[in-house]
Amino acid sequence: MSETKIPLLGKTLDELAAVAAENGMPRFAAKQLARWIYVRHVRSIEEMTDISKVHRQRLQARYEVGAHAPLDAQRSTDGTVKYLFPTADGQAVETVFIPESERGTLCVSCQVGCRMGCRFCMTGRQGFHGNLTVTDILNQIYSLPEAEQLTNIVFMGQGEPMDNLDAVLRACHLLTAEYGYAWSPRRITVSTVGSKNMLRFLDESECHMAVSLHDPFPEERNEMMPAERAFGLNDFLPLLRERDWSHQRRLSFEYIVFAGQNDSPAHARELVRLLAPLECRVNLIRFHDIPDSPFHTASEEKMVWLRDYLTKHGVTCTIRASRGQDIAAACGLLNTERNG
Question: Burial of 185 by CB count in 10 Å (0-12 exposed, 13-18 middle, 19+ buried)?
Fold first, then answer.
């Protein structure tokens, strides 16, 4: 049985320096390796032509780049593409590429399934089947056929990013490091349903944060989002109000609008009370019906009314365009249980 090789994708410059030293390579080889991986995006060590053949052979004995092409792709009539990527432990995750006129956004997964159990989410129904490695996370970007078109990344695919924070922070570091992808952190948004790890994320990263809110009343939110019990609105909102939210770093709240559930004038007033003191924006999201769900899609009129009410009362609000619904790629529909 052949030994599993160690991926270089996902290693920091210091770690690549250790790999170089271990293989008798010169000190500058770490930067060479980083350039081949994070700038030139090679798929094999053999392609690293400014590294001597002897050193490439030594590397190949234990290491690989770690890039793996998607297993499947589904294309929506609106241009959205949903990819199925393999993971290091033999499972798979879904990743969604959303092309727009001047933007290309990738919705990245960080876990196989999710343990948060939100009642309106297909990923939550899948249950939790494991954290992705840094290599697994970055491979969704690295091996994306449309990688050159990417302008933005959102950690809004399968899983709760704060529940796999070490890997997510490492991925964000490599995406923004000068020796890595060298992206601005303003091109990356990380979502959460609410977690004590939010504070660590805010301290250790400069990326945008999006909070999945969905109901301004804790007792109602608890009914649809069990995570409310562990670290809910009354826990994280005061902490977010203490932060300095400049125009450089964005705080947003995601709000799926459910007919007759969270779209009343009372909900609108409470949203204003909670969020008006914050420098933030609210993204209203259409719900996409899932089997055996007590939730239903709100009317377009109600979506527009809620947007206009929040905007009028000082809360910046937009209605997010729904993409990829015909291939189950829209918000809350990602699920790979059939592949597990």
Answer: middle
pLDDT tens-digit map of 60-76: 999 999 999 999 999 99
Which residue is catalytic, options 118, 172, 317, 331? 331
Which pair of tokens denotes residue 285?
């999201």
**Topology agreement, domain 6-64 and domain 72-339:** no
CB 7 within 8 A of CB 44: no
In the chain, where are the structural domains located?
Answer: 6-64, 72-339
Encode pLDDT of 283-319 as tens digits.
999 998 888 889 999 999 999 999 999 999 999 999 9
Domain 6-64 falls under CATH 3.90.228.20: no
CATH T-level topology, domain 72-339: TIM Barrel (3.20.20)
Q: Is 317 one of the annotated active-site residues of the chain? A: no
Please confirm, yes or no, whether 110 is among the known catalytic residues. Answer: no
Q: Tell me which of 94, 160, 228, 254 is the catalytic residue.
A: 94
